[in-house]
Amino acid sequence: MNQLKTIKSALISVYYKDNLEPIIKNLNKLGVKIYSTGGTLTFIEKLGIPVTAVDSVTNYPEIFGGRVKTLHPAIFGGILNRRDNEQDVKEKAQHKIEDIDLVIVDLYPFEETVASTNNETDIIEKIDIGGISLIRAAAKNFKDVVIVSSRNEYGMLNNLLETKNGSSSINDRKLFAAKAFATSSHYDTAIFNYFNRTEQLLQFKQSITSAQVLRYGENPHQKGIFYGNLDALFTKLNGKELSYNNLLDVDAAVNLIADFTEPTFAILKHNNACGVASRDNIYQAYIDALAADPVSAFGGILIGNKNIDLKTATEINKLFCEVVIAPSYDADALELLKSKPNRIILIQNKINFSNTTFRTLLNGVIEQDKDLKTEQESDLKTVTNTSPTPSETKDLLFANKLVKHTKSNTIVFAKNGQLLASGTGQTSRVDALKQAITKAQSFGFDLKGAVMASDAFFPFADCVELANNAGITAVIQPGGSIKDKDSIDYCNANGMSMVFTGTRHFKH
Prior knowledge:
- By secondary structure, the protein is of the alpha/beta class.
- The longest helix has 30 residues, at 170-199.
- The protein is elongated and about 95 Å long.
């Protein structure tokens, strides 16, 4: 079998005509016979280049408003026949079928339409049938046919036309075929997920077409790849590429800051906040966030939800940090932050995130609704004789936001809109509490009058007892333990207030 094939005929049917003209001209220059339909046919005719209408090959007009154009044996026979198969060659001659050596398709923009309208009729009409069939047929017969399944591959095709005079190797065609099946599978996944919004079939399908190879994974001996479009979420202003671990921390930072509207700054390490503060201005928010744990902040991820000015940037610049994220920067602030060439500086753009999360587990994938619950004052149920003061209530809600975004088991101490300390990722709640007390004391924080948040209920009264001894006056927790009364009784006996949220915020 001759693995080198020369393109002598081409079928072109595309939705978007961008960057198509150079390909048409190159094909014409090489003497390639061109077949086309609809708007693409008109486009080629306007270029003054010879083109044959598909319906003159099929002897059948386009019908049903263009829903049926290329779906005909004369077309698919020209694509699918095996050039080295004697029976195929015989049948091809019998039915007067001409070879088609190149297929160029750009599918109806289904995903774009879903994103731009809720009109079901418009969306359904953007499900491409003929185009997807052409892609699959040409890709299946890659031994004989070149398939270009997206305008993203026009550059590859042009290179082949210009450097190889329209000839292609088996490796060329197989690469185009792989890309074609990637196109078709992604397209079908998008359609399925649209229908599954309402039908809710228990099938997991995801398709992401953009990817970035990372320096390595979690550790240098592990390969790492990010599948997604970071450019949609961030505008990168400075620094090296984000690493695997950077991305994990950035994800945690973005999700945490989304729960705050007032000027807030957070510093994260290993997916946990080591400093958070809400203040009247972003400068003071940063200063007080850093005070919670300046040791852990070294090499951390910094995120603020307001514009970074020069005063704030001057303080940030004193700290070695991997990433700084904010919605905007003053020009002089940005210049100062850029003085560290490796420091990654990002503007966070406003985009809508998925309401579900998933991750690999054992031999499959586990999926769940995203934890989008953020408690408000109306969600709180006071279960003790003493109610929290207005300032304590404010701090309780603040601390509860942090608990939600901290690895379980976790305890958070807060006061005056500032994280004082947290115990994170411990195997027991008592250990988490003890860790938080030790950290607070090590950085000179007085816990008297501070509040405590827990991500899950207290199975015994020992936690509130330890908290009381440390100076905690108010507690927020979900409740739900068969021994809730023990903790409530202790609080009542010691003048503490406790509120239940009814919502657990485990984060494993």
